[in-house]
Design brief:
Family (chains A, B, C): Belongs to the UPF0047 family.
Largest sheet of chain A: 5 strands, antiparallel
Strand order of the largest sheet of chain A: 1-8-3-5-6
Organism (chains A, B, C): Alterirhizorhabdus solaris
Number of strands of chain A: 8
Oligomer: homotrimer
Pfam families (chains A, B, C): YjbQ
CATH class of chain A: Mainly Beta
Strand content of chain A: 35-45%
Protein name (chains A, B, C): YjbQ family protein
Number of helices of chain A: 3
CATH architecture of chain A: Sandwich
Helix content of chain A: 10-25%
Chain lengths: 139, 139, 139
């Protein structure tokens, strides 16, 4: 019988950039005891986002962070800067990446590839806790 | 018992840019009477897209529109310009944003954050009606 | 009664760029015999991605490929180049597009618009087989 599970994962973003929380997700999914289904993660913020990326090379993460800092830079005279120079670029970087991820579950495992990790992409400078809604449906 | 609901929402895009249709989505979801589930929205076009963004500051929307106009500009001598200079940049901006959104439903509410709105991002100049397929599964 | 189906589609990417595999997806979905549901495709790689795009004009595909080659170019002195100059730009282009697609199924058909095709976006030069996980839930 198909059933569902829902949770809110709180991910600490102590600095801007990519934060791997794959283990948290894998653990929560494992505890639901399903073997086939669909996981959806949803970031409840507009100045942080989600990304599936290469999980082996720290240099790849630094390149990614530098790239988004370059194509959506701070301090360009945005009309919207209520919360400072990192406010509007945060929204732009969120728009360019993902607010949600959906990952099938098969044989009781997420079908992530060998080199794929699940990241919170924090775009603001102030350390903060981010809420990621998790939803699983399956058997 | 898990069940489904499907609908097509028609969103009027009278001008290019971001069009908030959060209320339409929230209303349709509420009418399905579910309390836990997963909503998926799918944009049936390649020159418009979907975005979850900051719903409070009009300046943020203007900055977003200006940003995408800058990184995927009109009139750069694209090979594909069958429908005019706004044809190919529309496809590029759609590729950089989202064709679909998935949002969990919990306690009979979408888990949207306080500042998150659901937007149609229209990339063409001619006013048009856009079809957004909505699918809800849950209890 | 709601049920699920899961499969891995292997898509051959003989060259970098966009590879249309809509027919493969449509065929697999049709064989599951459902009339209402939700399809999710998930790319199990970090140097290839998924995209829904214009399926009629070859020029649009060439423009798209040229655009991503321009905004995330090879040979810019990335810190991460373990696998060559096309390694890091591949991750960037994947981050800018989609790792997963969700498409509702209605009246036994995916709700793809007339001009929408499903593409694997290959970012590496070496010809390779890419694994796309497919998950369908519905009735």
């Amino acid at each position: 019988m198909i059933r569902q599970a829902s949770e809110t994962l709180t991910v600490r973003a102590a600095r801007p950039g990519l934060h791997d929380f794959t283990d948290r997700v894998v653990d929560w999914v494992a505890r639901q005891g399903m073997h086939e289904g669909l996981l959806t993660l949803f970031c409840r913020h507009t100045s942080a986002s989600l990304l599936i990326q290469e999980n082996a090379a720290p240099a790849a993460r630094r390149d990614l962070e530098a790239y988004f800092a370059r194509i959506a830079p701070e301090g360009r005279g945005y009309a919207h800067d209520d919360e400072g120079p990192d406010d509007m670029p945060a929204h732009l970087r969120a728009a360019l990446t993902q607010v949600h991820l959906s990952i099938p579950l098969r044989d009781a495992r997420l079908v992530l590839g060998t080199w794929q990790g699940i990241y919170l992409f924090e775009h603001r400078h102030v350390p903060t806790d981010r809420m990621i809604a998790a939803h699983l449906i399956g058997v």
